[in-house]
Amino acid sequence: HDYGQSLLDILSTAMHHALAIHFYRRIYDLDASMLESRVKAVTECLNRFEALGQGFECGTSVLVWPAYIAAREASNPQVRAEFSNWFETRVCRNGLKIFRDTKGDIESIWAKSLQTVI
Fold first, then answer.
1. DSSP code for 62
2. Nearest by Cα to 62 from 5, 19, 95, 14
3. Which of 22, 72, 87, 95 has the fewest Cβ atoms nearer than 10 Å?
4. What is the pLDDT along the chain (118 residues), one digit of tens a residue?
5. How many Å apart are CA 78 and CA 36, to the nearest integer?
């Protein structure tokens, strides 16, 4: 694999897991806990992209949607922290508003999910 193909493989894998998460949550209303392995797989894709894509920061914007879909379904505090840190790092590195706004949306969703549990 060359560099570009590896980045595309990571993106494709992240999209695949995010689409499955979206489908099973929105169409079949499957409990989020049943999708934790797919949520974790997206974080692994983000980390792999991070490691491989050094100097390719602008390319991370293509991962916003899969990261958003997976993060909103994350229930594990450690996984939530991974997503939060990923978005925060993107804000610091490239300053794109979409990362800041998406992080805010996700944190709002998490806060609401905590309120419904309590």
1. G
2. 14
3. 95
4. 588 888 899 999 999 999 999 999 999 999 999 999 999 999 999 999 988 866 666 678 889 999 999 999 999 999 999 999 999 999 998 888 999 999 999 999 999 988 776 5
5. 12
* Angle in degrees, 0-180, between the axes of helices 36-52 and 77-94, rounded to the nearest 10: 30
Question: In terms of Cα–Cα distance, which of 100, 40, 50 is closest to 74?
Answer: 40
In terms of C-beta density within 10 A (0-12 exposed, 13-18 middle, 19 or more buried), how is residue 60 classed?
Answer: buried
pTM: 0.91
Pinpoint the alpha helices (H) of the chain. 3-26, 36-52, 64-73, 77-94, 97-117
Residues whose CB falls within 8 Å of the CB of residue 83, separated by 6 or more in sequence, listed in order: 43, 67, 70, 71, 74, 106
Which residues neighbour 95 within 8 Å (Cβ) at sequence distance 6 or greater? none
